[in-house]
Amino acid sequence: MKKGKGKMAETCKPKDPQLDKPTIAFIIERSLNKNVVVYEGLVDEGTKQLQPDKPLDVYWLDLDPVYQEKNRKKGKMTDRDDLNMIERNMAYGVKCEPIEGEEGAYAMTLVALPKRKGILKMVNGVPQALMEINGQQCYLQSIFVHSKQGMIGLPKVVYVLVKGVSVEGEKEQEERIEG
To answer: What domain of life is recorded for the organism (predicted)?
Structure first.
């Protein structure tokens, strides 16, 4: 879906037109349904830089037809939903802090992968998240979470696939992290 060096990687096409926005830095996909969590850079129209007070907007995008049908029956014509407090604090939230000495760059920590730090910044006019994948610095494209139903109804993560495109050489990278 996302690109390296400001262009789309040939094999990473968006699965849904709603994901074909240059401001989307990356997404989280899950095995439970087709809905995704979107991490979209908030770009200041005047400066063309990430907004310093809130550089990243995180929200659900209901792409699963069952969810879309339920939304339409309720009269809801958009597929966007905000994360709730539990989702922000336990699963999909992100913390972005300015990096001292690097204007417009933010240290990024995902609740889902707290040990895997990233950087959020503008690259060739679009928001990009950089993260190490397979020991290489990459433009993060997506994270896929494979989970199964746990004993008390909460999903248990089996593994996570982190996908991206290397900054040097633009080769696709994928790393599996066991749950």
So the answer is: Eukaryota
